[in-house]
Specification:
- By secondary structure, the chain is α/β, with parallel strands linked by helices.
- Helices cover 45% and strands 22% of the residues.
- The protein is built from twelve helices and eleven strands.
- Strands 3, 4, 5, 6, 7, 8, 9, 10 and 11 form a nine-stranded mixed sheet that branches.
- About 2% of the residues have low confidence.
């Protein structure tokens, strides 16, 4: 036995109009036609859906009405989605970016994306670089954009450009002379301003650069970190893009003569391995490749 869509539409019309006559008027069909259809449905179900005099829904009728209304809502939602797809909509982009990407690249990329997909669904989060990768691995977002880590076994990557990160300090810092003469010793008394303070257990052994500093300040805002650096309150890593573009960097200099004074990282897009990107994500990847191939 199957419940046909037309049967559900007629049953819902009778229930919502509180009678056969008004339902027939609404649907612009004869009252006898709608009455015969409902009687046929009741015979199929072997139970009455309506009491005729006075008019009311039976218990079976109330249950079937809930189903009919749910089916109607689902159909309307599906039709809206199909119309959006026909018009080029329903592109979905779920993206996490780090602060540098968000500051210098994301606005232009998202503008181009939205101009091509005016009905697109967007989720864009700014996160510290390591958390961008975690968000992709955990399935919180489909795409991540930022610097790569040396070990990303669960992720596929698309490299877009290289960035250089440099450990810098203000020339007005109170320990600038000590930093110039004996930087490793001086850093033991100076905080590092970073966007993310990870669990020490995640960076075992010699890879824990944080151990060279007196403490680590977690400051996610680029502007706030730059202010702390410019005012001589801390040292921190700054990308070449930031050094070239931000006025607060004019009085900063590299902390030299350390193995970790600077390093180069690939920057690009990541997504989970063994997954197929959605059409919206593929289009964003294409926009990124076009931007950095120009």
């Amino acid at each position: 036995m199957r419940l046909e869509t037309r049967e559900m539409q007629l049953m819902m019309a009778v229930a919502e109009n509180r009678g056969f006559k008004r339902a027939a008027e609404q649907l612009e069909i004869s009252q006898s036609a709608i009455s015969q259809s409902i009687s046929g449905l009741e015979r199929k179900l072997e139970q009455r859906l309506f009491d005729r005099s006075p008019f009311s829904l039976t218990e079976a009728g109330r249950r079937l009405l809930v189903y009919a209304q749910s089916q109607s809502r689902e159909e309307a939602a599906a039709l809206r989605d199909l119309e959006d797809i026909r018009r080029g909509g329903q592109a979905k982009l779920s993206l996490a970016v780090n602060g540098t990407i968000n500051r210098y690249h994301a606005p232009a990329l998202l503008l181009a994306y939205c101009q091509s997909n005016p009905f697109a669904s967007l989720q864009v989060d700014e996160l510290p670089s390591r958390q961008v990768l975690q968000a992709v691995v955990n399935g919180q977002v489909e795409l991540g954009m930022g610097p790569f880590q040396s070990h990303m076994p669960a992720l596929e990557s698309i490299s877009l450009y290289q960035e250089r990160r440099t450990l810098v300090v203000s020339r007005d810092h109170g320990m600038i002379n000590e930093l110039r003469e004996s930087p490793e010793q001086a850093l033991a008394n100076i905080p590092l301003a970073a966007s993310f303070l990870d669990d020490p257990e995640e960076r075992p052994g010699t890879t824990r650069i944080r151990d060279y500093f007196s403490r680590v300040w977690q400051v996610r805002s680029i502007s706030m970190r730059l202010r702390l650096l410019a005012e001589g309150q801390a040292v921190g890593y700054v990308t070449d893009q930031v050094l070239d573009r931000e006025t607060l960097c004019q009085n900063l200099e590299e902390v030299k003569n350390l193995e970790f004074s600077n390093f180069v990282r690939s920057v690009g897009l990541v997504y989970r391995k063994n997954t197929t990107l959605s059409p919206g994500a593929r289009q964003f990847v294409r926009l990124c490749r076009e931007r950095w191939s120009a």
